[in-house]
Design a protein that fits this description.
With 896 residues, this protein is of the alpha+beta class. It has 5 domains: 3-260, BirA Bifunctional Protein, domain 2 (2-Layer Sandwich); 274-410, no CATH class; 468-571, Elongation Factor Tu (Ef-tu), domain 3, CATH 2.40.30; 580-734, Threonyl-tRNA Synthetase, Chain A, domain 2 (2-Layer Sandwich); 772-893, Diaminopimelate Epimerase, Chain A, domain 1 (Roll), CATH 3.10.310.40. Helices cover 38% and strands 24% of the residues. The strands form 7 sheets. Strands 1, 2, 3, 4, 5, 6, 7, 8 and 9 form a 9-stranded mixed beta sheet that branches. It has a 6-stranded antiparallel beta barrel with strand order 14-15-19-18-17-20. A hairpin with a 2-residue loop joins strand 17 (530-534) and strand 18. The chain is globular. The relative contact order is 0.04.
């Protein structure tokens, strides 16, 4: 079975047992005590605690849950890559009973799925049950009930329960949510993976990969009290967790249990092999399935390579799914755990010879292979890849320096020596090495690290950071001119800079630097995003704004580098490139507009960001032909790959030149920047020239495909063109092509004949609509006759008050008019109809009814007030509506 089939068969099995199939919860846990969601039961804790009513009928559920165990109580990080089964990210298949079935049914389900559906060899299975050790004060009593059920299963299979049921103590077979609260015994299912399969339970609970636990069934039946006693719960629950990767690995490595002689590893299944294939393509190395000896991290080059393969494949899953769930690498708590894992993977990439950005290139493999079951990894694929790419690029800038510093220090030590806390702190503070990465590198050299000394230096740094106070600033205007920022971003995308000030502006933290490569938002171009690095810490710049000559780098979160620190700042290049493509093509669009339409079509505004551009101009609506000509002309200039250059000149020297675009009303300084396309650099002889302070591509060919996607009016005499370029243009073109293919498939028509087919469909639709209108008019007239005939006469007026059915509110209005016409001048007609979750109401009054004091507008206003809505109109006809469909009868009854 493929891993996808294993997962689906688990869910299908429990669906057949009346379990509701539940979506995996986010890796961001609800509990403040958890770094990540680390078990399938996390999302059900409120039900177990009685805080939330069970929403499932019957009280049964099953799912596959994304889990991360790295940091905190459950931490498998250091073991990843060294064996066959440890992971930081894994899926937990689980089934739950909330006060419904209990031990017998849970064990019955487990045995049926494992032995009858998946066909695990029964003689290789071992169950553990809880047996307390009174000498250690273990709670509760021997789980006789679970033992008896398992004994039935093994006896029926001709196996001895005394051999195949193993007793476990509190550590192995008693589950507690915390020191107090719900708890209970658990029973586990283990598989003997030795070639002969005859260990007779000797390896169970022995941390031996040759006997693997695959399923844990927890029976929540007690409450742990503060005084140390245990009392029965009013409702008993079942919480189970199965290792998805373990089951898939066992089934595939043994060829569905036919051959137990080879390597049996989670990493040999199709969960991981697509990642290995991609890593092989990137590195040129082959995964060899070797394992280091116990206590070793690899004795041969192949063993070291294979450890790296496994670590990288595991870690990309952790990073990708966490980021897809909104958890990003950062400087503290769970965010720093992710940063540590990412940097660990990047360093292992060096083992495979991968020096440039490689890690983010694995995201696509996960999107392709796991996007069906976890759609968030597919929909957020580009976001995940971008976050990883930025983090990876940042660490790569210091990784080689850090390795050199470590090697220099390690070279001075003999085997068994200690890397000082000071060196470990330098690696962290200056080069961004997490402590565990330094410890890993030391372990590879037979060394250790002075962790206590490192922690002392870390605490001293934390105290310095706490002492650095942020200046409170209320508005941008409060930023003084004491700290002007030198902009170096025309030529450089990264630089060292000094933190001049840290400010708090409307609950946002901003850093002011003495120089910056980030473009601050102005001239219609959005501000850059970036990463600030200070040793082992990083901060994401989400936006860059300008106040006078001061650049404000807004950070993600409240944490910030301290004032006076020297940091590195690097612009998000992929985002900047996308912005530049849209900015430069805006200049080309302006030029093409003049060529196709008129020199009088002047720019009234523009906006450029990574996804699109908008260009506002004065003039009339453009014809489809003009739009096509403009689009073609721009793409022709892109293909010409003309140079884009800029130069600073005195404003007085270009002020009167009509061939250099400048905008009436704008204020220019003594020196201005001219951006020109074509011509000779600094000669001011390009075919497009504008005064512009924005950033641009170097050649028009970098822009890529240009597409106009819309043109419309935004004000009197002002039109707006919306367009896309580069990858955004490609995505738009691809989406349009896919839409055409879908339409062609839906109509069973070749794409080339779609227009003709559409015309036929529209003609047919018009003919059908015409016939339907005849039928509706006839039906409406008949209904009007029926309603008019039932008019109720009171005080000389004839009332027709009814709830009716109508296709649309307009049909209801027409029906009211028809009824009133048939009743005559004494008519008071009030009709209501429900449309989904809303109600419409119409009123019509004849001339005599109006003279008698009736007014359709007032009737509608009063009635709609009872319906939770409003309406009104003239005395003879009015219409309104409301949202309370339960009050229709009451509203109609109130009409007098």
């Amino acid at each position: 079975m493929t891993s996808a089939q294993v997962r689906q068969s688990f869910l299908d099995f429990f669906k057949s047992k009346q379990h509701s199939i539940v979506q995996s919860s986010s890796l961001m846990p609800d509990s403040p005590n958890l770094l990540f969601t680390n078990a399938g039961m996390n999302q059900f804790v409120p039900i177990f605690l009685g805080q939330t009513k069970c929403p499932y009928t019957p009280g049964r559920a099953a799912d596959t849950q994304k889990c991360i165990r790295a940091g905190g109580k459950h931490n498998d990080l250091e073991d990843v890559g060294l064996d066959t089964y440890h992971h930081t990210f894994f899926e937990m298949l689980g089934n739950w009973s909330f006060g419904d079935y209990f031990k017998r049914e849970a064990i019955d389900f487990a045995w049926e799925l494992i032995t009858e559906v998946w066909r695990f060899p029964k003689h290789r299975l071992y169950a553990t049950v809880y047996k307390p050790d009174p000498s250690k004060g273990d709670p509760s009593a021997f789980d006789q009930e679970a033992w008896d059920v398992w004994a039935e299963k093994f006896r029926a299979a001709g196996l001895d329960p005394a051999v195949h049921i193993v007793n476990g103590n509190k550590k192995d077979n008693f589950w507690m949510m915390g020191e107090t609260g719900p708890c209970g015994p658990c029973t586990e299912l283990h598989v003997d993976l030795t070639p002969e399969g005859d260990t007779k339970g000797a390896l169970v609970n022995g941390s031996d990969a040759r006997c693997m636990e695959i399923w844990n069934l927890v029976f929540i039946q007690f409450n742990a009290n503060p005084d140390g006693t245990f009392s029965p719960l009013p409702a008993r629950h079942v919480d189970t967790g199965m290792g998805f990767e373990r089951v898939a690995g066992i089934m595939q490595c043994t060829k569905n249990f036919k051959d137990f002689s080879g390597v049996i590893s989670n990493y040999e299944s199709d969960v991981f092999t697509p990642l290995f294939r991609r890593l092989e393509e990137l590195s040129g190395k082959k995964y060899g399935s070797t394992l280091p000896a116990a206590g070793s991290i690899g004795d041969t080059p192949q063993e070291k390579d294979d450890v790296a393969f496994r670590v990288i494949a595991d870690h990309i899953r952790t990073l990708s799914f966490a980021i897809a769930d909104g958890i990003q690498p950062g400087n503290s708590d769970r965010n720093y755990v992710l940063r540590r894992i990412l940097r660990r993977a990047v360093r292992y990439g060096r083992t495979l010879g991968l020096k440039n950005g490689f890690f983010h290139q694995l995201v696509g493999v996960l999107a392709d292979t796991m996007g069906d079951v976890f759609p968030e990894i597919r929909t957020r694929r580009s976001v995940v890849a971008d976050v990883i790419r930025i983090e990876e690029e940042s660490f790569n800038r210091t990784l080689d320096k850090g390795i050199a510093l470590f090697e220099d220090e390690a070279g001075k030590l003999k085997a068994g020596g200690v890397i000082s806390g000071a060196i470990a702190f330098r690696l962290y503070d200056e080069q961004g090495f997490p402590l565990d990465l330094t410890q890993l590198m030391a372990r590879e050299r037979g060394l250790t690290v002075d962790g206590a000394g490192f922690e002392q230096l870390m605490e001293a740094q934390r105290q310095r950071a706490r002492a650095a106070q942020k200046k409170e600033v209320i508005t941008l205007s409060d930023i003084g001119s004491d700290h002007p920022t030198a902009f170096v971003g025309y030529e450089a995308l990264a630089t060292q800079a000094k933190v001049a000030q840290v400010a708090k502006i409307k609950d946002r933290t901003a850093v002011i630097l003495d120089q910056s490569p980030c473009y601050a938002e102005m001239g219609g171009q959005v501000g850059d995003s970036a990463v600030i690095t200070l040793g082992g810490r990083q901060w994401r710049v989400t936006d860059t704004q300008k106040s006078g000559q001061t650049w404000l780098h807004f950070l993600d979160g409240e944490d910030a580098p301290e004032a006076g620190a020297t940091i590195e700042i690097a612009v998000d290049q992929a985002r900047r490139d996308a912005i530049q493509r849209h900015h430069t093509v805006t200049h080309l669009l302006h030029w093409a507009l003049h060529e196709v339409v008129s020199k009088e079509a002047s720019q009234k505004g523009s906006a450029v960001d990574p996804t699109k551009l908008t260009f506002d101009f004065n003039g009339q609506a453009l014809t489809p032909g003009q739009l096509a000509d403009i689009e073609k002309l721009v793409n022709e200039r892109i293909l010409a790959n003309d140079a884009v250059t800029w130069s600073e000149v005195a404003y007085a020297s270009v002020k009167g030149r009509p061939d250099i675009m400048q905008f009436f009303g704008d204020k220019y300084g003594d020196a201005v920047r001219v951006v020109q396309v074509g011509g000779q650099s600094a000669a001011l002889n390009g075919w497009s020239m504008e005064l512009c302070a924005g950033t641009h591509v170097r050649h028009t060919g970098e822009i890529g495909l240009f597409r106009i996607v819309g043109e419309n009016a935004i004000a009197a005499g002002v039109r707006r063109i919306e367009a896309v370029a580069g990858l955004a243009g490609y995505e738009r073109a691809r989406a349009d092509a896919e839409l055409l293919k879908s339409l062609a498939a839906a109509t069973n028509t070749p794409v080339a004949d779609l227009l003709k087919r559409l015309e036929q469909v529209m003609e047919q639709s018009a003919a059908v609509e015409k016939k339907l209108k005849v039928y509706r008019d006839r039906e409406s007239s008949q209904l009007a006759d029926t309603l008019a005939a039932k008019a109720n006469e009171r005080a000389g007026l004839k009332y027709v008050i009814a709830q009716v059915s109508a296709e649309t509110p307009n049909d209801l209005r027409d029906l009211g008019a028809k009824v009133a016409g048939k009743v005559g001048p004494t008519a008071v007609v009030v009709l209501a109809a429900i449309f989904g979750d809303k109600v419409s109401l119409v009123a019509n009054c004849g001339a005599d009814a109006i003279k008698a004091g009736k007014a359709a507008g007032k009737i509608v206003t009063d009635a709609c007030g009872k319906l939770g809505g409003k309406g009104g109109g003239k005395p003879d006809a009015a219409m309104g509506g409301g949202t309370d469909v339960t009050k229709v009868a009451e509203a109609l009854a109130a009409v007098g």
